[in-house]
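yo

u said u wanted the structure for the complex thing, so here. seqs first:
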Amino acid sequence: MDLLNALVALTNFVIVPATAYGAQLALGALGVTLTVAVLRFTNVAHGDTMAFGTMVTILATWGLQSLGISAGPLPTALIALPVGIAVTAWLLLATDRMVYRFYRRNRASSAILLIVSIGVMFVMNGIVRLVIGVDEQRFDDGARFLVSARDFKEMTGLDEGLAIRSSQAITLVTALTVMVALFWFLNRTRSGKSMRAFADNRDLALLSGIDPDRVVRITWVLVAALATIAGTLYGLDKSFKPFTYFQLLLPIFAAAIVGGLGSPVGAIVGGFIIAFSEVGLTYAWKKVLGYTLPAGLAPDGLVQLLGTEYKNAVSFLILVLVLLIKPTGLFRGTST
Amino acid sequence: MKSLLSASALLALVAGSAQAEVKLGVLLGFTGPLESVAPPIAAGAELAAAEISETGSFLGGETVAPVRGDSTCIDASAATAAGERMVTAEGVTGIVGAMCSGATGAVLANVAIPNGIVMISPSATSPGLSTVEDNGLFFRTAPSDARQSVVMAEILGEKDIDEVAVTYTNNDYGKGLADSFQAAFEEAGGTVTISAPHDDGKGDYSAEVGALASAGGQVLVVAGYVDQGGSGIIQSALDTGAFDTFVLPDGMVASALTEKFGSDIDGSFGQLAGSDSEGGAAFEALAEAAGFDGTAVYAKEGYDAAALILLAMQAAGSSEASAYKDKITEVANAPGEKIFPGDLAKGLEILASGGDIDYVGASDVELIGPGEAAGRFREVSIENGEITTTGYR
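structre next:
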């Protein structure tokens, strides 16, 4: 019984939140990794692309709600997602046409493109704040819980409750679907294969007749889709606030680099590593140990490795460790 | 030499004629995490200034011009710059402000003390400000959090709660309140299982709530801001079933709280500075006539801070801070004729004729120790999704 309680407490406070957070980070890191692999630069504007996509989705959600359309127990935002993706794709394609294409034609180095993307970040940042404002927005509707802590306790008779919010379940299901679809696209379709060829060796790809502009367009559309989905899932699970999306940049980059920049599998694994370390290292293990250890050995202290205020430092720490020990990341990405 | 002398005489003359009106600084956090709280406080201070101006008997017929400045709440350098501008460019000799404890400490150390300006904060409650070196220039009409902590510990004791978890917003206010609460609660025999900070403006508080839940406790004390991380913590704690009863200090008691959570937090309770005195009701009526909410948190203290500065000037017969700073405690405390909001004209007349007043004002002002309000607290609880007053202490 005590073991069960320990397991439930651990699931409730570590495994469930970290899994949902990890899936959101993984989707964000996938977008970053795609730009690195195909377009060969680190896109600092990714966090704000997520914010933009989420903003459009929120506006579309409000539109649908005012028309009286809802998805029943699911959040309306899921129906609004395609609108968000389409508008974000349009924005990214327009940005590419107006900004990035010039530097690509000049064969600018990736460092210059990185700095250009900082400029793009500020512009997107401004657009989002002008349109929707700086305040927090909540746009989750539908059923809030799959299992609520109170129901779980009544059902099982355990001391510990387990809550699974529907947004967490939706995050996981959506993220899995998107990942499977992405890998299917990259490995099975002609466009996906040409993207990978272009990423592996640009000159060889050009010689074999791959249209570079088409590959770039497809990449931006994929990045828009990944960013919008990641942003919307994060917003549904937590809340939407432009500033927090800007802050998401750090863990997302840490995830992409830990996994190996340019490696999609690495991005996913990296996302979960970062999420589990952030939550696990700052979790106070007192309760779990209290249940599992024999009565005399139960700790008095909190058994907390790091105070929660150092949560963000965990990403930095892992980043530094990986860059020192294995600069190419776990899955052998590029070491730029 | 002669021309220099006459030039300086001319300058003195110009400076003298510019003093036709007394300028009063209103330095509050109009932007930042408490931006929704600032406007009623400013309106309260300006109401007192207007009331004094209209009497025509202030310092022999001078008027008062309030000057607003933005102390933000968390940006000490912005607060210092705003305070400096008030003193050098506008020539204020008294400041109502600043608002948050960190900004107040910064303005006091960098502006008020070097320039010899009196500051009365209507809302800075950090216990650290009680012991700060202030040359007799700093007062507050808000009670210190040390007092609030004792009240909070008393309320918990009466409810037979002896084990609590504490989370605080990671700044001067939160840390000060959490530390003094822990001291007060432990003295009363209670146990604080964990005292963990949270940062404002984050999207996700599951790690914080995980640690709090693991430490355990009958209730969770949230020493934060309702517009910021405080609500995030409560949301996450409710979602995971970690806590369902919360103790809410002054930064958390606002209508935004019940708008967000409704009856989900029924049974939670808290306290904020407030009194049921006759002066409070008089002020609320005046505020309503002036078009703002007199029940808003610290609006009464804002009115009292401005009134105290101006009455002390009258008592000293001068708007120089060095002259009137010693009169503030005299004006605020007994003995003397009791002065309520709306009676400022009477107070001015008594002082002009050399009499003594005991300013009671809107918030029952009684300055103790290093020039801070003794403080009365309104005890509230959340019932059926509404904030209800359960008593005063």
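Residues 171 and 233 of chain A are 6 Å apart (CA to CA). The beta strands of chain A are 145-147, 164-165.
cya
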